[in-house]
Amino acid sequence: MLQRATFLYNHGYTVLLFDFQSYGLSQGTMSTLGLVESGDILAAISFLHAYPDTSDSKIGVLGLSMGATASVLAAARSTDIVALVAESCPVDATRVPGDVPNDQVRDADRELVEDVYGVDITQARPIDVINKLTGRTALFFVNGDNDNQTPLAGMTALYQAAGTPKQSWIVSGAGHAQSYALASSDYETRVDQFFDTYLHA
Questions:
Q1: pLDDT tens across 70-81, in order?
Q2: Element housing 91 (H / E)
Q3: What number of other Cβ atoms are within 10 A of residue 117's Cβ?
Q4: H helical segments located in the chain
Q5: In this predicted model, what pLDDT tens digit does every residue of 47-91 receive, in sequence order?
Q6: Which letter does DSSP use for residue 54 in this model?
Q7: What digits encode the pLDDT tens for the residues 152-169?
């Protein structure tokens, strides 16, 4: 995410990077595929609103893969997110082949997370809440047409289920989370323009 943060910063945005719980230097036991992590995003927003220089700032979020799941779930729980880039976003985070290869693993993960966190990770389904963002969170879906983890059909389903304002971009030849690597200049221009449209309005 450093490259993405850099171009947004260079474009004039204040950028907050943080580790989800159980990632990087943050404490935690395990991933919940975006469900509990959505609360981390809300905590980050609270931090920004408590900081004098950004207390009145409009909030834009860029989430990638599981981060996209967490971002959509967070936006469904908060009116603070004005604009959201959801890149390689799964329809159902518990059905991503690279993370949850089969139903046996899915059931085991669900039981383990429920024992530790008391939540049901099968609720980590952006498709179920994406319509809650209608009219209050602008959406920009980005997906490669060669993505076998979060296939293009999933982005199409999310786009169709979402209300307005919304837009999408299919990156030719890109696999999972490869859109920036394959089309850096175009990616920067499109994301900058998207945030400019909704964060400066």
A1: 999 999 999 999
A2: none
A3: 16
A4: 2-10, 37-50, 66-77, 103-117, 126-129, 152-161, 179-182, 184-199
A5: 999 999 999 999 999 999 999 999 999 999 999 999 999 999 999
A6: G
A7: 999 999 999 999 999 999
Under a CB-based contact definition with an 8 Å cutoff, are residues 72 and 129 in contact? yes
Angle among Cα 166, 11, 38 to the nearest 5 degrees reads 50
Number of Cβ within a 10 Å radius of residue 180 = 20
| Portion of the chain with pLDDT greater than 90, in percent | 86
Sorted by where each begins, the domain ranges of the chain are: 2-199
Is the predicted pLDDT of residue 143 greater than 90, yes or no? yes
Angle at 166 between CA 155 and CA 193, to 5 degrees: 110
Q: Please provide the DSSP assignment of 150-187 as one string.
A: S-HHHHHHHHHH--SSEEEEEETT--TT-HHHHSHHHH
Which tokens belong to 106? 């899915």
Q: 0.90 exceeded by the pTM?
A: yes
**Per-residue tokens: 109:** 């993960």
How far, in Å, CA of 68 to CA of 14, rounded? 20
Give me the residues paired with residue 86 across strands: 63, 141
Burial of 103 (C-beta count, 10 Å sphere; 0-12/13-18/19+): exposed
- Please give the single-letter amino acid code of residue 117: Y
Assigned CATH for 2-199:
3.40.50.1820
